[in-house]
Amino acid sequence: MPNINPTIPHPANPMANDGRLKIALQKSGRLSEMSFRLLEKAGISLTKSRDQLLCKAHNFPLDVFLVRDDDIPAFLATNVCQVGILGQNVLLEKKALSAKKYGVLDEVLTLAFGRCRLSIATPTGFSYENISSLNGKTIATSYRGLLAAYLQERGVDAEIVTMEGAVEVAPRTHLAEAICDLVSTGNTLVSNGLKEQDTILQSQAVLIKNRIKDQDLKVIYEKMLSRIRAVLRADNSRYIMLNSPIAALDAIKAVLPGSSSPTVMPLQGREDMVAIHAVCEEEVFWPTMEELQRSGASSILVVPIEKMLN
Ligand code: ATP
Ligand code: ZN
């Protein structure tokens, strides 16, 4: 449970509805910087308070609670906050442990950062064929709920040892014979003499919400969501400009990635050429640019988009 004293007077009392939406973010860790950056890109400026628990946006009706990522689901389940950003791994683990308590939490948007996977790993000397090789073994993890469900679905009977951190040292210290932990590059596993065997879950950061009953807060939430959606679309989009022979127009339009209706403009002094401008809702890679060039395009320019509202 979040350590919040409900007797603290307004506005520090987060239970009081002061007409401001409350979002829970990881205070410090792998998700913090990107979570803050996302709000900033959505035009929400934050001033950090001295107590470091609460930050207030001064140009948007939003308050930010800075907490441990593991506490974020509880902040939403108790409606201290209505929205949050955390890894799918944490959200799904909490739901696996208590579907009743966390059933009110919905994943709204995937945010394309904090990517990792929850995997089973064994010491390199362990003879592992498939998940059944873990029958009768001991597995250390911080994700008891997800691991238990995964093993149960596959009829594997193993003992689970819950650890809060440093799970990767469990086999070396004979606490467990295998582990189930988060992996991104895999370097930590390798340096601990472990081999990744099975992936239970692919994860990334997500925006989550509770049932937001208050109409005013719902309106603020919708506005924030629409801005965040716009940021994500702009991040994924590129603005492309090029010159094209009129004869090659259709061929070039067909190559432009993720763009439905490009703008075609005359080029002064060139009867046979036009300029094409288009928003491509995906990354424009070198092979695509080369294909455009082969189709007759010249002066190809690809630029990032800062903001986009449709
Ligand atoms: P806190 O103090 O908030 O509890 P933490 O130590 O639990 O922090 P971090 O290590 O900062 O958490 O990781 C936060 C989230 O980042 C993870 O829950 C996961 O979703 C994501 N993540 C991405 N890559 C990795 C990785 N290699 N190892 C662990 N988490 C990762
Ligand atoms: Zn944590």
Salient structural properties:
310 residues; alpha+beta; D-Maltodextrin-Binding Protein, domain 2; Alpha-Beta Plaits; seven-stranded mixed β-sheet; five-stranded mixed β-sheet; 27% helix; binds adenosine-5'-triphosphate; binds zinc ion
Number of helices: 9
Strand content: 25-35%
Overall shape: it is flat
The helix fraction, in percent, is 25-40%
Rounded mean pLDDT score: 92
CATH architecture of the largest domain: 3-Layer(aba) Sandwich
Q: Give the beta-strand count.
A: 16
CATH superfamily of the largest domain: Periplasmic binding protein-like II
Strands of the biggest beta sheet: in what spatial order?
2-3-4-1-5-12-6
Q: Indicate how many domains the architecture comprises.
A: 3
Q: Tell me the series of helices and strands, N- to C-terminal.
A: EHEEEHEHHEEEHEEHEEHEHEEHE
CATH topology of the largest domain: D-Maltodextrin-Binding Protein, domain 2
List the uncertain runs.
5-12
Bound molecules: adenosine-5'-triphosphate, zinc ion
CATH class of the largest domain: Alpha Beta
Spatial separation of the terminal alpha carbons: 40 Å
C-alpha-based Rg, rounded: 25 Å
Structural class from helices and strands? alpha+beta
Largest sheet descriptor: 7 strands, mixed
